[in-house]
Amino acid sequence: MTAPPPFPPAGRPEGGRPRGLRTAYCGELRAGDAGREVSVCGWVARRREHGEHLAFLDLRDHTGVVQCVVDGAHDLRSEYVVRITGTVRSRPVDKTNESIATGEVEIGAQSVEVLSTAEPPPFGVDARGEADESVRLRYRYVDLRRDRMQANLRIRARVNAAIRRSMDRQGFAEIETPLLWTPTPEGAREFAIPSRLQPGSFYVLPQSPQIAKQLLMVSGFDRYYQIARCMRDEDLRADRQFEFTQLDLEASFVTQQDVWEMVADSVLEATREVTGEEPPAVVQMTWEEALERYGTDKPDLRFGMEIVSLDEAVRGSEFKAFAAPAVRAIRVPGQGSLGRGRLDALTERARLLGAAGLVWLRVVAAGGGLALESPVAKFLSAGEQAAIVSATGAGEGDLLLAVAGEAAPSCRVLGQLRLELGQPPVSERPYRFVWVTDFPLFEGLDADGNPVAAHHPFTMPHPEDLDRLESDPLSVRSQSYDLVLNGWELGSGSIRIHRADIQRRVFSVLGISEEEAESRFGFLLGAFRYGAPPHGGFAYGIDRFVAILAGEENIREVIAFPKTQSGADLMASSPRPLPARQLAELGISILEPPGRAPGGG
Ligand code: ASP
Whole-angstrom Cα distance, residue 469 to residue 467? Predict the structure, then answer.
C-alpha cells in the first residue's frame, strides 16, 4: 500500500490565465521566466529585513508563493494585500530554495502598491501547528487561506467537475429540485421552515431529492443527476453535518447492474482526477457475504484477516466451547508474539463487544510442522490443530483469534477486532470500492412490532422473495445496494417500486395506512397512476468521498463553512434568535426554553 501524498497538487483552474491587475501568478514563476516584467498580486506571507532599506517578501496567491525583493521604506505587514511590479530574476545558486516551486527565482520589485492593509490575523496562515478549531471556524476566511484548506477545497472542486464530466458523458441531465419542500422518506429528523404567506404552515428541507427524482422519471427525463444539498437534523459527528452534499442520480428502465456501472464510472473518474492513478475496479459482494467474511456491511477490502469458519475443523472437539453452533476465526499475521497482557485485553474487548469469550492460539513450529500454543491447546487433538491451521491458512508466528457462539454475532465481534488490529488509516491507498448488494428489505421490528424499512419504503423487494413479503417479511431481500470505500459507507440506492400493487403491500407490511401513505407521499403515488417507468438510482456523499481522497478524517476539513459539533456556525453566528417583528410576521411565538424562569434573561 502506498500512502497518499500529504496534499495532492492543488493546481489552478484550467484556463485561468492571469488578468486584470496581474500578468503572472506567484506560484508559477520559474527559472525560464528570468527577465520577464511581471505584475503579481497577493497576500504578504512573510517579511524578512535585509539591511536598512532592503526587505524580502514572500508573496502568496492561490498558486503558491514567490520571493520579492523590495527596496526602500514600505510599511508592509503580514496579510497586507499588495501588487508588486518588477523583473523576474534568477537567484544566485547558493540562495535558491528547494522547498518551494519558485525557489530558483525572485522578483526585483520596481513598484509596490498596497491594495488593502490587514490587522494581525488571529493565527498564522503558514503556522505549522494547528490553531484551536473554534478559532479556525470563527475566522474561517483566514483558515481557508492555508495550504491544507486550499488543497482540500480544490480537490473537492475537481471531484465535482469529474463527477459532472462522467454524468454528462453518460447522458444524465442535471436538474435542480426544491429546497423548500415537503417530508421525504429517509426517516431522519427534519428541518422545518415557517411560511410567511401561510402562517402555521411549514416547508420541510429535503433529506434528499428522493421523491423529486422519482417524479422526474415519471416525467420521462430518463437519466437525472444533481450535486444536491441534503438536510438532516441529526447529531453531528466527524462524518456528519446537518447539511451535506450528495451526488444524487436516478435512471429509467435500468437494472441494478446498470446503476452500479453508472455510479462506478463517476467515482473512478473522480479518483483518477485527484490521484492521477487508475484505481482498482469496483467489486461486488452480497450483504450476507460481507457479514460472513468481514463481520460488517461496510467491508474494508484493503487488508486480509478475513473471517473463516472453523466449524468443520473442530467438529466433535473435546473442547466444550467449540460445541457452539458456530466457531469463527481470524488470522492476525505475525502477531503470535503478542504478550499475555495484550491478549487478555483483546479477550476483554471481545467480551465488551458481546462475545462469551475469545480463544487465542499462537501458531508455532513443532516437529517439522505447525502446532498451536494456547491455554486451550491441550483440548485440541493434533488433527484438529492441523485442520485449524489449514482452514485459516496460518503460518508460523501468526496469531489466531476464535469466537464461538451464534454465527452472526461472532462474525460481528471478529469483524470489529479485525478493524482494530489491522485497519490502515481511511485514506491509505489503494482505494477499494465495493458494492454491497442484496440488503434485507426490512431491518428488525419497531415498538409496534412492524418491520422497519432498511433503506426507504420505495425500495423494490427482490423478485425471488416477493411471495414471502407478508408471511416472512424479515427474510425478504431487497434490490438495494451500498457503495463502500475503505470501510466507509459512501451511499446507498435501490431499484424503486413503480407498481401500485407492490407499493401498497410494502406500506401495509410497514404498518403505513393508506391514509398516511396518501398524506405523506400522495403526490408520488398519484404520479405513478399516470405511467411510471421502472427506475432506480443512487446517492453518495461527496463530503465523505472528498475527505477520503484528501486524507482527512473529519468532513469539516473539506467543507468551506461547516457547523461545529453543536450545530453552530461560529463565524456567521447561526442559529440565532429572530427579532419579534419577524416572528410575528411568521405567526410564531417562542415558548420559554425549559428550565428558564419567565422574565429571566
Ligand atoms: N435518497 C437516498 C438517500 O439519500 C438515496 C437513494 O435511494 O437514491 O439515502
Answer: 6
Q: Nearest to residue 74, comparing CAs of 112, 120, 130, 24?
A: 112
Residues 165-214 pLDDT 10s: 999 999 999 999 999 998 877 788 999 999 999 999 999 999 999 999 99
From 248, 435, 439, 495, the mutation candidate for ligand 1 (largest count of ligand atoms within 8 A of CB) is 248
Q: Compute the C-alpha angle 17/21/23, nearest 5°.
A: 45
CA-nearest residue for atom 1, ligand 1, is: 210
Q: How many Å lie between the centroid of ligand 1 and the Cα of residue 482?
A: 10
- Mutating to test ligand 1, I would choose from 456, 460, 538 the residue with most ligand atoms within 8 A of its C-beta, which is 456
Grid cell of 251 as nine digits: 435512471
Among residues 280, 226, 279, the alpha carbon closest in space to that of 248 is found at: 226
Atom 4 in ligand 1: which residue has the minimum CA distance? 208
Structural domains present in the chain: 26-116 (2.40.50.140), 304-422 (3.30.1360.30)
| E-assigned strand segments in 91-242 | 105-116, 173-174, 192-194, 202-204, 223-231
Going by their DSSP bridges, the two strands 433-437 and 283-286 should be labelled as parallel
Packing angle, helices 256-275 and 147-169, rounded to 10: 140
Measure Cα distances from 587 to 331, 598, 599 in Å: 64, 21, 21
Q: Which atom of ligand 1 is nearest to the CA of 458?
A: 7
For residue range 317-372, list pLDDT tens digits in order. Answer: 999 999 999 999 999 999 999 999 999 999 999 999 999 999 999 999 998 899 99
Contact 492, 482 (CB under 8 A): yes
Q: Are 43 and 81 in contact (CB under 8 A)?
A: yes
Helices 256-275/542-550 angle, 10° precision: 40
Q: How far is the CA of 286 from the centre of ligand 1 (A)?
A: 19
What's the CA-to-centroid distance between 538 and ligand 1, angstroms?
A: 6
Check pLDDT > 80 for residue 85: yes
> In angstroms, what is the span from residue 504 Cα to ligand 1's centroid?
20
The residue type at 108:
G
Give whole-number Cα distances, 232 to 94, 191, 229, 455, in Å.
Answer: 57, 7, 10, 16
Q: What is the mean pLDDT of residues 85-101?
A: 94
What are the distances in angstroms from CA 183 to CA 191, 192, 218?
A: 9, 9, 19
- Measured from the CA of 459, which atom of ligand 1 is nearest? 7
pTM above 0.85, yes or no: yes
Query: Any residues with Cβ below 6 Å from ligand 1, and which?
Result: 186, 208, 210, 492-494, 537-539
Edge-first strand listing for the sheet containing 223-231: 173-174, 223-231, 243-252, 535-541, 488-495, 480-485, 433-437, 283-286
**Ligand 1 centroid to residue 452 C-alpha, Å:** 16
Q: Which amino acid is at 595?
A: G
Between CA 546 and CA 427 the distance in angstroms is 10
What tens digit of pLDDT does each residue of 226-240 get?
A: 999 999 999 888 888
